[in-house]
Amino acid sequence: MAGRMVEAAERKLIYIVDDDASVRDSLCALLSAHGMRPVSFPSAEDLLQDASEAHAFCAFIDLRMSGMGGMELQKLLSKRATPVPVVILTAHGDVPLAVEAMRAGAVDFIEKPASEEQLLTAIESISNRLSNRPQVTLPPAVVSERLARLTVREKEVLDHIVLGMTNKHIADELRISQRTVEIHRARIREKMEARGLADLIRMMK
Amino acid sequence: MLNGRVDLKSCDTEPIHMIGAIQPIGVLIAVNQTDLTIEFASSNTEALFGCACSELLGSPLSVILGEDQCADLLGRSLKPSMPDLLRPWFVSVTVRDRQPVKLECYPHRHEGRIILEFVELQDGPAVLWEEDLVRQRIISELIRPDTLTELAQVGAQLIREVTGFDRVMIYRFAEDKHGEVIAESTVRDDSFLGLHYPASDIPDPARRHFVLNVIRIIPNINAQPVPIMTRAGVAADAQSETPLDLTFSKLRAVAPVHIEYLNNMGVGASMSISLISNNELWGLVACHHYEPLHFSWSRLRFCELVGGTISALLQSLENTIQLRHSIRAEKTAFDIERDARSGKPLGDVVRDHAETLLDQCSAQGMVLKLADQYIKVGRVPSHEIDLAPLRQAQVEGIATSENLSGLTSADGNPDVRLAGAAMMELSDDGEDWLVVFREAFEETIKWAGKPEKVSTRDGDGSLRLSPRGSFALWREERHGHSKPFTHIDAEILRITRRVLFAMNSLDRERAAVHAKRQAEAEEARLRVVLLDSARNKSLGELASALAHELNQPLSAVTNYVNACRQELRNYGVPIPKEVERLMESAVSESSRAADLVRRLRNFIGQGEIATELIDLHAVIRQGVELAFAATKDKHPRVVLDFAEGLGPIEADPVQIGQVILNLVRNSVTAMSNASDPLLTVSTRINGTMVEVSVHDTGVGVDTAVARTLFEPFHNSTTSGMGIGLSLSRSIVEAHGGSIWIEPVTDGALFVFTLRMNGRQDG
To answer: Residue A61's closest CA among A52, B411, A48?
Structure first.
């Protein structure tokens, strides 16, 4: 999965929208190094203005930006004739918002700072989907089988997790301690064989 | 009492002082006051003087009285006193060469004439006041009573015994002029005691005469009157060219209507003595005899003296009674004030003293209104009563009515059992008042007499000129009326209102002070809460900002290192194991730093968003209020321009309130030196979003600063707009909205958006 040389023509066009210049620049550097063709924009408006015709492989969009926010941009891009898959990046841990973005059609969300693996996996899963290869999305049967492993309480916690609720919020809601929620969360991740929240959301969609 | 309208129904069309005749109990001569020429003479001069009136008319007065007595006459005080008293002048009349006749003369000057009335000097036990018994009784009995009715009773009895009248009654006139028999001494079986009769029974001209003349005697009701002739040889009545004004005449003939009235009762002789108190006609001593009754003028003068004495005693008694009532009212007022000042609410105090207050006001029920509180005691109307007419009739905060039905609207259907009311205003704003209610008069007043035994002449339809007819008429007139409110009542009401008004003001003042203290305490509490929340929010914001600010460069570092490693591979540069390890460390340390930041933020706790359906406009108002409470700067004018039809939106009221608070606080600070600070907060619906704008007329925001305004810890961030704006941004964005500053020519315009359908609804 590690980087390999790719011909320029095959290079994937990837939009990067972030109002932080160094984040933009570093992400461009990383994606370039992995053979992509990143084009960055400091704001949603800039992208909409300058990149209206280009066909992009996907877009990495920061959730919070002054002016038009990431969510809104994602909606616009998903409505295009050839929808642009969107990966939401967030520096705030705005999980509930990110969850919402996923429900609205974003393929993934990644909390900053993102690991190299998270970024590349996100791109790979889009790539798989576009080429009709076996998807990261699991068949329902598998999901059901995994869900069956959960206790009633764990299922309850999972229902809350996929809403994007924080541990504290879930703890308040279920009247249990935060620590217990953390344990449940770890067990759920284990039993569901999920790497993170995004996986869980995808499974529970 | 004298300036009411003349009731022509019960009064002869002829003015009674122009009747042009006297009773046949004396002789009247009237002369020109300058030359003493006889201008008028009653037609019966022959009997007393021995010469016909036609002989006397045109002659000088001296033909009767002689020069000396004429000079004596001019030296006398001839002006009628007020009221006029009997001032006898004992004269000797010598006409031509006849024997001198000793007579009593009552002369007075009126309208340029001197009117002389001659009566026979009667012998016998004339000097009544020399009788020890009578003198003793006046001293021992008359001055003893301390109630009006007792005094009246003693007076009636005394006069009856001295004069020999069959019946002596004492009438008292109420303020509405209706009369009541309050005392009676009689030898007859029937009684008029307790009888009421309407004001119209004594027409105003008659009342005028009662005030001007203390005493009036009619020894024989049906005696033929004697006409007074003019020099032209006609009766000097109202129809003649030169009528003679008999206002102060003692012998004036009786008006036909009065003759009828007395005849209806079978009265043959009557006497009246006016009781005048404080220059007003207080009442009347009315004496009836069922046959003609003649007695000497000296006895008449004695009656006048007794009447005057009774009047004086009445006045003193009445003043005493009023004083007693006032003292009682003052005492109650004092008690009320003492209780109210002890801290008891006024409503409770009034309830405690209700019985006394009602008794004092001769009322049977009361309604007290204090703010929203209604306190009812005793008999009160069963339905709402329109008090507006009473209120309009107020003089110095008090209005009375003895006829509520006349005050309520026609469809008001007043409580028939309650007829009168007195209203006392207890606050300047008309919000608080006390109304006491009086029962209908007919409920409380019964004539103790037996009207069926009163002899009345029937057949001529003049029932109404009889005591029974009068009482029936009076009852009819009084229907729906209460006992009238007298000037004593007015005084009691005044005293009562004074204390209640004062105590109510005290209550209100107390309440106001209390409310102010509470408001101050609330404001202080708000400040504390605000400060506290600002501190917590700042810390939360600090954590959030740290997370954001540090995560960005950490992201960049991780990306750069990863990119670097990848590029090295791309270029086929073998990466020594040691370098690989260093690069891996750089990435994992970045990750550790990010983790630390995340834990710090979780530890401090970023205010979590707890959304509910909120009224955004209410939240905005609250936020503005909070900002004003928190600032020492002068408050600007505020214009709230809210979008119509904005329903509840899903948001965190505390957090959104915080955003408003931050923006408004910044605005107020920015306008601290503005001449006319104006803050406009408006909302506008824009698609699925609601747009909130906060516009001030302050110093504005520098363009350079505007770019980084919402970023925390930025160099350009000034003290005034510190972390608040970045916090606001966090909150707004966490709600799925955005915040920005719009360029304007005046002041600053901050705008943020919120979703109308809440966060969950994509």
So the answer is: A48
